[in-house]
Structure formats: structure tokens, C-alpha cells
Design the sequence.
């Protein structure tokens, strides 16, 4: 959460100076490489059909939807049980477990994908990846997150999702925050999920600090249900998301490190990530008073 | 360690023998010494030439305007000369130690009786130093400046061998070095971040500066601590003749400098301030949120000096500057402070001593100032306290010996983050503080042997890590496997490095020479920065048990020749530089608030080579220079770019700068500079991968692409008010335009995903268009 603010802040200060600068699209000739397999998906502590998606890379300016990879054989195993995945008929390239599957704290899960064949490449690949759900106390569902609310912020023109959460002092934890509005995933892209380590907040209570930010000012109406999903994720997955978010940011000479390729936990030249993590949720029903507060703040801002 | 000691002993012995052999034969000699000053302001003249007419015996003034020469008894004609000043010749009959203080008249001043004729010295040819560039403030002021802010660092980026880190940036790379390989000194105090407004302007207020010198490799033994260069900037002492006011009102900022005598010819002061005023308009904005916004920078330079007597002078100077950006929620500020106290003492006529005490500080903060749980403040600070003792001994007309010691205490507090109210969800988190001691001892000699001048010296530097500290223990895979704790004041690690320096100058004749030099430099402090241009948030950190000092060896050969009575100076230099233990970081290293940063460092190697052609001309109506540099620079770092050699982002093979000023008459002058260079190296994506709706670029090799060809023309027109002899008031209009023909040179190229069509990706550049500005300068 802090990281988001600092980056946003830095862009803000640049934009203050950027009054003198201009932007312009340009055409650049780029090289190509043979395609690579991209795997992304997870198993969590939720009892649902867990999804793994397989696509392939393309030329940078290809400008088409990703080529989906169909016909692969997938399964997730915890060493004892094997959960097979079946490819969705309506969404090719997306593979699901049965809806009664759930991951358990502390267990290591292995994804196996066999017969993965890319379009434009004759080789058929077998891939594996491994991830372990962090070991948490048994009462983790109630221990971490007490409650949330929402508050409009005029500086950023959007909604803070504030949380009352407790960070355990004895563990080194990594968190991922997602938001659902009326049970529909709002954080549907890797760029609008928030991640945080516990370095600065180890052992503290968040006291209603902003844990998530909804950019669209008009999304929330009275009676809407806002759900904050707090996931405790493995450190390596945390680093993966950091790297993906960094890679998708524009290069700014002052702050950007030389670009590089994000890590992966897949083998045989594939990229992407298979993760396993624990999920905790808390919900809030938007009140008329939240909207009133917003309108009051907006009115003050536009200046009378 | 044993090895180093043996080497140092050998080198010291060698030095001792060469020194003693040159001193033993000294005969009955007398010293001429004194100070050279500007006759109108009383400012000491740095690097002015003093020579005996008809011989090649001579010397130059040091940073305090002091010179000394030892000569046998006899009659001499001594010539005192300085660029853009009228020469003075003096007949002397030497039979005892003599002090001659001289005041030279600037060329523009009406010709008086003492003036002989304008005759420029061949200093660049005859002086036993190469890869050094000196710029006069007068020249720097003529160069068209961004928003009219005359900027020393932008001026030196037009010199051969110097490459700007990014378009508009005050970061620079010298002969393939990194930005933090440059030591930037203001009155001898290190300026740890020389940037204002995120790097678009430098911290140096031109009205407060007297002299600028850039050492690109042939670093004197008295200087060290950085691999690539020393930018030595000296503040004005203040007019000791009369009270004077200099000021300016510009597009971005206003400046005011006051200077004058405190006690005439004994003591003077200078105080200079500047502040930007864009934010002064904010309160009138209709958007209430914006009204509370702050965005400004200011700086303040001050100096006083006192001449106790002809053998003792004291100088006290300081710099204080700050940048602040603030909106209703967040604030971010940074700034430098330096403080220098110096005592010059002359023993006899030929031993000059300078004792310096200095302090330097760089700090920044970033915070959210709300009254809820989000409030926090993050502070970072580094401090340096240094004592230096330097001696110059002009043993005789053929030997000038310099020696000295210095010792610094460094303390780093890279980051403290704390909540600022009871509700704050961040309580307090600290990066461990660390301490270091940096010492150096040096001796060098400039020895003339017929047509040769040998310059040889040895600097022995040392760095010690001091507790209280926790030092990381890393395994071979850079994994932290433990920590060693040390008590307060405990010295737990020491590096000692001999740094030999060597230079040979062969004077072919009065107007041409060949020079060669070798230098070994060591750097113990570095900046945690992995971006091109660097940001104010980059913290400095020291060598440690896990971080070896960075080292560089540089060889250079040059040919120097002057034409047309020294009014055209030309030089050609070739260099090769080899660097080791270079600091780089693993991919995606998180450099801010990383208390285990040492584990993310990957020490690499680098090399650069090239040649530089430089030709500087000065005529009554026009002056300027043309510089062409060919240079390449490469890096090789484990784990970065799969361990393969890659181009550094400063690798711009071709660089051409043309700087030209033309005086139409006494009132109107036009200046222009044009730059042409290869685009900088950057990494081009070779493919894209879509993961959870985000398209990320994939790369194959670091810095495999190039920005388009870079070229830019800047121009400025200066119109001075009519000279009125009754009044001292003099006004001057300056109109400048940066990027006159609006070339779209990318500051950055970004590869982005289209917000409206998520399947689409495109490349976009940010560039700076033509930027005009005007400034009104005044002086009285």
C-alpha cells in the first residue's frame, strides 16, 4: 500500500514539472523472438474451481488478443491428492479444477501441465511449477482483518478502502489486496491489485489506514457491497507481482531501473506464475452518509 | 594487506628518492610570492600564470590566487597574465624574498598606463595537466540556459568527454563513468546531490560562483574518492573594493547577490540567494486543493574572508539549498548544506598551507501529512565532517611539491519511517545507521627537466567501517545468512589503497606539447541508484566487508597545439579506462528502504575508451569552442544481462558540440550552441506477454536499442543597457531559447498498453519542445 502511494506521488511531482514536456507516439522497429508459453493461475484456501490460464507470447506490436493454448493436460497435486483440471468449453485456454477443491495452510502444491503445444512451434512441452500456501495460525480467518469502510478522497479523486487489520509480529508476511464490488472482481488486472510486505507495519494495527484505492469516483452507490480480499501470499509470488507491475510501468529516467524480465516459477522456458495462497475477506455496505461526505468534499474542492 | 603495505612502501621510497634528488642540488635561492587579484572586485584569480620573460620558468596561482617562485639572485622581468585580463610585466631585482601582490585589469576595462599588451599565455600547452577543462563564469553566462537559469553543469556537458545522463538532466557521465563517479565540490565541500527540481537544474547559483574546473581523469594526488572526475567549484569571495549588487529576474526564479568590503582590502563578504516563484501563483488558483500546493527551490550562498596579515587569511563559506514539493496530502523535500572554514598560512615565501574544516549534509523527507492512520514521515540523511591539511612547497623553479592529509567522518541514516500521529498505522521503522572514516595522505611533485615536466604523486587512501553497526553476512549466492553486530566506535573493517598518479608533459615548443598521464582512483562511497538520471531519493552508502571499493585505471595521451598567438587552442586526447568492482544491482532490486541492500549488489567490471578533439577560439568579436568525442563504454556484471557484456546507457559513440558567441558591439551579443550525438542506449522489447490483463514487454539484451539521433540548437541574445558613466547601474536583457528548431529528442521512450484497447501496445516518447525564456539582470 505504501509502495503505491510513493510511486503515485512521484508521478505527481513529475507531472507538475511536465507542464513543459510533450508526449508523442512514435513508430519503432522491434526484433522478434520465437514464442514462449505463459502460464498464470493459482490455488487458494477458497473452495471453488481454481483457474489456470495458458497463452503464448507474441511480437510486441502484434496488437491481437493473446493466442490461447488449448488441449493441454493439467493437474494440481499436494503430494497426496491430485486435482485434475479441465479446459473450459466456452473459454479455451482456461483450465479449471472441480468446484469443491481448496488449498490448505502450509501445504505445497505442484502444477503439472503436459502436452502444451504452441501455435507456430512444433515442440510439445511438459511444465511444472510449485508454490506453498503460507503457514498461518488456525484462526487466521478472524485474526487478520476486523472490518473495513470506504472514504472518498478528493486529492486522488477516488475511494479509499480503509481497513482495521492486525499484523502478527512473529511472522514475515506478504499481502495482496483485491476488491470486489457487489461480488464482482474490481481488481481484475495485475496492475490494480495492491501488494505490501510487513516491513513497515510489522506487529501493528492498521487503524483504518487505506488498504486499497478505487480510482473511479462514481463506482459506489448507497447499498453497494464492497469486499476487501486480503491474501497472505508467498514471498516469491509477492516479488513476481512487484516485477510484473514494474515491467508494465513506463520508463522514467529519474526513477526507473533498467528493464528486465520478471521471474517465473515455471520450468522449460515457460514464463508466468503458479501461486498458492490464503484468502481472508471483509465486506462493507456503502451508506448514504459516505456519498454525502463525498459530495461535501467535492463541493469544497470545486471552490465556490 | 601485506601486499598493499609492501607496494606503498616501495612507492613511497621511490617518491622520496626522486624528491630528494631534486632538492639536494638547490642553490642560493630567493622566493617571489604573492596574490593575484582582479583590480575591480578584488577577487583572487585562480590559475593565473606567472612567468619569467624569455624563459620557460613559471608557475600559476592556486585556488586562493597565491603563487610562489624560487629563483637564483638576479634581475628578472616577471609577467603576470590571466585569460580575459590585461597582462602586467614587472622588473625586479631579486636579492631577498619578495612579496609582489598584483591586481590585473579585466580586458573590458579602459586601457590604463600600466598595461603592456594583451598576450595570452600558452597555459593549456605548457601546464603539466591534461584532461582538465576550466570554464570562466563569463563564458558560462553566455551559454543559452534552460528558463534562463545559467547552469554550470549544463555548460560542462558541452565539453569533450562529458555526456549528459538524460536530456535536461544535471547528472553527467565523464569518460564512461557513472553519475556518482563524479566528485562535486563547492569550496572543497562535497555536494552529494547537485540537483534542483528533480535534476533539471543544478544547485549552483552562477552569481555566487567564481571558478569552475573539471578534472576528467588526470586527477591531482590531492584529490580522490571518486573514479571518474572532480568538478571543483569555487565561490566568489566578495568584492573587496566596493559594495556591489547583482541580481536577476527570470522566468523561473529571481536572484540577488550582495557583496562588498567589510574592512577595505582586508575583509569582504558575499551573500547570494535565489528562489523560484511558480508556486507564488498557486493561491490565486480556483481549485482549492491546488491553493495549498507548494513547489519551489531556493538556495543561499554566503562567504566572508579576512586577511589577518600578508601571511594569514581566513575564509568561511556555506551553502544552503532546498527543494520542496507539497500538495494537500503529501510532501517531499530535499536539500544540501555545506560549510567550509579555511585558514591559509604562508611559511617564508614558498610554503603555502591551507587548513580546511568542512561539513556537508544531504537529506530528504517524504511524508503524508494527514490526521488519520495514513500519516507518516520518511527521513533520510547523510553527513560528512572533514579536516584537511594541504601544503604546497615551491622548492625551486623546477620543483613544486604538494602534500597533505585528510580525514572524514561519515554518517548515514538512510531511512527512518515513522507515524506522525497516534492513529498512524506505521509506528516506527529504521534502516540501520552506519558510520565510516575515510582518510587520505598524499605527496606529489611537478618537476621540470629541460623540456619535460614530470608530475608524479602517490595518494594512499583508507576507508574504515565503524560501529555501532550490524554487518550482513552473505553466502556465495548473495543470500543473507546472518549478521555481525559491532559496538559503538568499534572499527570492524579497513580498506587501504595506494593510488599512484603519473603525468609527463613534453614541450615541443612554445605552442605545442605532448602529454601523457596515468591515474589509479578508488571510490568508497556510492549512490544506490539504478536509474539513468538518478533521483533525489537515491541514498549514498559506503564500502563494507561485502562491498569492495570501486577502482579505476586510466591512461591518456594527448597532443596540444595553439595557433594564432594562442587565440586558437586545440587538443586531441585518447583515453582508455578500466574499472572494477563497479556497483550494479540485480534485476528489480528495490533500492529504497532496503535494509539488506548489500545482498542486491552485483559488483561488475567496465571499460571505456575514446578520443576527444577540442578546439577553443577567442577573438575580439567572437569566441567559443568545438568539441568532438568518440567514446564507447561497456559493463559486465554477474547475473545482469546473463553475465554478458553490455553497453552502458551512457554509451553514445559520437558527440559533437559547437559553442559560439558573437559580439555585434559592446551592447549586443548572440550566443548559440548546437549538439549532435548518437542516441543513448536503451533496452527494446522483443515480445509481449499478457498476464491477468496486463501486457508486459519482454527483453532479450540490455541496452540493445538506440534512441534516434540527437541534435539540438540553443540560442540566446543579450542586450546590455547603455553604459552610463555617472551611474554604476547596468542592466541587461537576456532572451534565450532552448531547442530552437523544436527537435523531438526523446527524454524517454515508453512502451505502453492502450487504456481503451487493452490488446494494443504502442511506443510513446516524452520530449521537451522549444522553451523560450527571458531574464533581466542588473548590476550596480
Sequence:
Amino acid at each position: 500500500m505504501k509502495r503505491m502511494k510513493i510511486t503515485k506521488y512521484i508521478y505527481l511531482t513529475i507531472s507538475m514539472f511536465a507542464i513543459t514536456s510533450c508526449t508523442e507516439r512514435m513508430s519503432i522497429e522491434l526484433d522478434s523472438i520465437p514464442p514462449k508459453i505463459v502460464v498464470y493461475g493459482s490455488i487458494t484456501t477458497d473452495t471453488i474451481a481454481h483457474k489456470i490460464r495458458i497463452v503464448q507470447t507474441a511480437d510486441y506490436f502484434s496488437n491481437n488478443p493473446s493466442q490461447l493454448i488449448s488441449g493441454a493436460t493439467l493437474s494440481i497435486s499436494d503430494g497426496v491428492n491430485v486435482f485434475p483440471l479441465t479446459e473450459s468449453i466456452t473459454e479455451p485456454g482456461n483450465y479449471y479444477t472441480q468446484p469443491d477443491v481448496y488449498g490448505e495452510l502450509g501445504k505445497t502444491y505442484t502444477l503439472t501441465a503436459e502436452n502444451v503445444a504452441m501455435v507456430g512451434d512444433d515442440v510439445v512441452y511438459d511444465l511444472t511449477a510449485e508454490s506453498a500456501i503460507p503457514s498461518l495460525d488456525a484462526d487466521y480467518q478472524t485474526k487478520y482483518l476486523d472490518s473495513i469502510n470506504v472514504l472518498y478522497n478528493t486529492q486522488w479523486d477516488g475511494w479509499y478502502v480503509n481497513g482495521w487489520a492486525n499484523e502478527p509480529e512473529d511472522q514475515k508476511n506478504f499481502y495482496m489486496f483485491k476488491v470486489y464490488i457487489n461480488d464482482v472482481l474490481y481488481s481484475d488486472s495485475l496492475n490494480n491489485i495492491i501488494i505490501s510486505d510487513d516491513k513497515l507495519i510489522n506487529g501493528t494495527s492498521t487503524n483504518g489506514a487505506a488498504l486499497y484505492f478505487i480510482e473511479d469516483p462514481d463506482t459506489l452507490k448507497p447499498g453497494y457491497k464492497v469486499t476487501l480480499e486480503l491474501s497472505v501470499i508467498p514471498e516469491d509470488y509477492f516479488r513476481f507481482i512487484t516485477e510484473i507491475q514494474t515491467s508494465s510501468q513506463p520508463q522514467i529516467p529519474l526513477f526507473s531501473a533498467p528493464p528486465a524480465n520478471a521471474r517465473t516459477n515455471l520450468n522449460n522456458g515457460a514464463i508466468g506464475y503458479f501461486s498458492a495462497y490464503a484468502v481472508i475477506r471483509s465486506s462493507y455496505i456503502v451508506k448514504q452518509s459516505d456519498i454525502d461526505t463525498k459530495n461535501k468534499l467535492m463541493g469544497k474542492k470545486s471552490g465556490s | 594487506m601485506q601486499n598493499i603495505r609492501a607496494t606503498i612502501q616501495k612507492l613511497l621510497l621511490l617518491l622520496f628518492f626522486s624528491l630528494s634528488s631534486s632538492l639536494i642540488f638547490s642553490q642560493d635561492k630567493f622566493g617571489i610570492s604573492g596574490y593575484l587579484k582582479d583590480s575591480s572586485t578584488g577577487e583572487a584569480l585562480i590559475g593565473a600564470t606567472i612567468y619569467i620573460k624569455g624563459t620557460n620558468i613559471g608557475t600559476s596561482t592556486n585556488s586562493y590566487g597565491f603563487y610562489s617562485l624560487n629563483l637564483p639572485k638576479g634581475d628578472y622581468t616577471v609577467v603576470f597574465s590571466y585569460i580575459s585580463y590585461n597582462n602586467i610585466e614587472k622588473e625586479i631585482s631579486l636579492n631577498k624574498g619578495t612579496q609582489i601582490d598584483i591586481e590585473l585589469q579585466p580586458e573590458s576595462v579602459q586601457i590604463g598606463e600600466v598595461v603592456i599588451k594583451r598576450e595570452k599565455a600558452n597555459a593549456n600547452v605548457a601546464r603539466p595537466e591534461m584532461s582538465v577543462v576550466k570554464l570562466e563564469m563569463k563564458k558560462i553566462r553566455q551559454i543559452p540556459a534552460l528558463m534562463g537559469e545559467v547552469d554550470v553543469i549544463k555548460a560542462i556537458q558541452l565539453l569533450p568527454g562529458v555526456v549528459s545522463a538524460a536530456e535536461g538532466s544535471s547528472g553527467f557521465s565523464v569518460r564512461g563513468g557513472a553519475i556518482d563517479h563524479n566528485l562535486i565540490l563547492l569550496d572543497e565541500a562535497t555536494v552529494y546531490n547537485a540537483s534542483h527540481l528533480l535534476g533539471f537544474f543544478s544547485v549552483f547559483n552562477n552569481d555566487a560562483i567564481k571558478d569552475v574546473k573539471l578534472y576528467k581523469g588526470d586527477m591531482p594526488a590531492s584529490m580522490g574518492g571518486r573514479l571518474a572526475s572532480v568538478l571543483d567549484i569555487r565561490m566568489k569571495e566578495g568584492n573587496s573594493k566596493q559594495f556591489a549588487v547583482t541580481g536577476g529576474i527570470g522566468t523561473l526564479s529571481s536572484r540577488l547577490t550582495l557583496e562588498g568590503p567589510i574592512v577595505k582590502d582586508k575583509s569582504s563578504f558575499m551573500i547570494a540567494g535565489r528562489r523560484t516563484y511558480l508556486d507564488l501563483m498557486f493561491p490565486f488558483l480556483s481549485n482549492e486543493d491546488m491553493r495549498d500546493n507548494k513547489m519551489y527551490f531556493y538556495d543561499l550562498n554566503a562567504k566572508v574572508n579576512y586577511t589577518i596579515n600578508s601571511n594569514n587569511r581566513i575564509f568561511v563559506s556555506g551553502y544552503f539549498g532546498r527543494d520542496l514539493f507539497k500538495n494537500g496530502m503529501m510532501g517531499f523535500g530535499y536539500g544540501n548544506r555545506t560549510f567550509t572554514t579555511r585558514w591559509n598560512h604562508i611559511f617564508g615565501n614558498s610554503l603555502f598551507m591551507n587548513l580546511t574544516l568542512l561539513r556537508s549534509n544531504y537529506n530528504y523527507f517524504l511524508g503524508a501529512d494527514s490526521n488519520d492512520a495514513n500519516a507518516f514521515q520518511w527521513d533520510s540523511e547523510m553527513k560528512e565532517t572533514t579536516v584537511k591539511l594541504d601544503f604546497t612547497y615551491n622548492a625551486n623553479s623546477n620543483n613544486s611539491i604538494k602534500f597533505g592529509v585528510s580525514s572524514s567522518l561519515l554518517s548515514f541514516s538512510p531511512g527512518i519511517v515513522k507515524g506522525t500521529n497516534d492513529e498512524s498505522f506505521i509506528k516506527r521503522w529504521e534502516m540501520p545507521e552506519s558510520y565510516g572514516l575515510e582518510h587520505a595522505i598524499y605527496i606529489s611533485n611537478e618537476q621540470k627537466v629541460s623540456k619535460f615536466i614530470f608530475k608524479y604523486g602517490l595518494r594512499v587512501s583508507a576507508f574504515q567501517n565503524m560501529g555501532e553497526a550490524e554487518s550482513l553476512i552473505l553466502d556465495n549466492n548473495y543470500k543473507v545468512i546472518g549478521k555481525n553486530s559491532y559496538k559503538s566506535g568499534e572499527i570492524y573493517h579497513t580498506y587501504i589503497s595506494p593510488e599512484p598518479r603519473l603525468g609527463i608533459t613534453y614541450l615541443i615548443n612554445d605552442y605545442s606539447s605532448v602529454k601523457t598521464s596515468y591515474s589509479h582512483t578508488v571510490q568508497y562511497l556510492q549512490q544506490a541508484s539504478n536509474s539513468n538520471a538518478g533521483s533525489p531519493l537515491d541514498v549514498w552508502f559506503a564500502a563494507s566487508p561485502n562491498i569492495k571499493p570501486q577502482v579505476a585505471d586510466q591512461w591518456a595521451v594527448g597532443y596540444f597545439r595553439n595557433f594564432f598567438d594562442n587565440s586558437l587552442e586545440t587538443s586531441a586526447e585518447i583515453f582508455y579506462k578500466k574499472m572494477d568492482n563497479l556497483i550494479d544491482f540485480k534485476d528489480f532490486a528495490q533500492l529504497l528502504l532496503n535494509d539488506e541492500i548489500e545482498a542486491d549488489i552485483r559488483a561488475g567490471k567496465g571499460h571505456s575508451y575514446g578520443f576527444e578533439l577540442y578546439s577553443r577560439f577567442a577573438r575580439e568579436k567572437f569566441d567559443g569552442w568545438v568539441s568532438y568525442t568518440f567514446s564507447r563504454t561497456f559493463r559486465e556484471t554477474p547475473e545482469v544481462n546473463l553475465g554478458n557484456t553490455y553497453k552502458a546507457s551512457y554509451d553514445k559513440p559520437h558527440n559533437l558540440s559547437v559553442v559560439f558567441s558573437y559580439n555585434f558591439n559592446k551592447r549586443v551579443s548572440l550566443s548559440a550552441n548546437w549538439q549532435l550525438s548518437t542516441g543513448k542506449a536503451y533496452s527494446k522489447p522483443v515480445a509481449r506477454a499478457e498476464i491477468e490483463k496486463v501486457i508486459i514487454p519482454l527483453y532479450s539484451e540490455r541496452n540493445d536499442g538506440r534512441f534516434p539521433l540527437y541534435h539540438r540548437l540553443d540560442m540566446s541574445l543579450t542586450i546590455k543597457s547603455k553604459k552610463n558613466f555617472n551611474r554604476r547601474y547596468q542592466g541587461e536583457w537576456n532572451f534565450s531559447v532552448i531547442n530552437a528548431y523544436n527537435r523531438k529528442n526523446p527524454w524517454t521512450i515508453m512502451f505502453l498498453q492502450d487504456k481503451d484497447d487493452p490488446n494494443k501496445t504502442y511506443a510513446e516518447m516524452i520530449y521537451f519542445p522549444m522553451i523560450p525564456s527571458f531574464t533581466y539582470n542588473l548590476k550596480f
Remarks:
- Chain B touches chain A through 91 residues (CB under 8 Å).
- The mean pLDDT of chain B is 89.
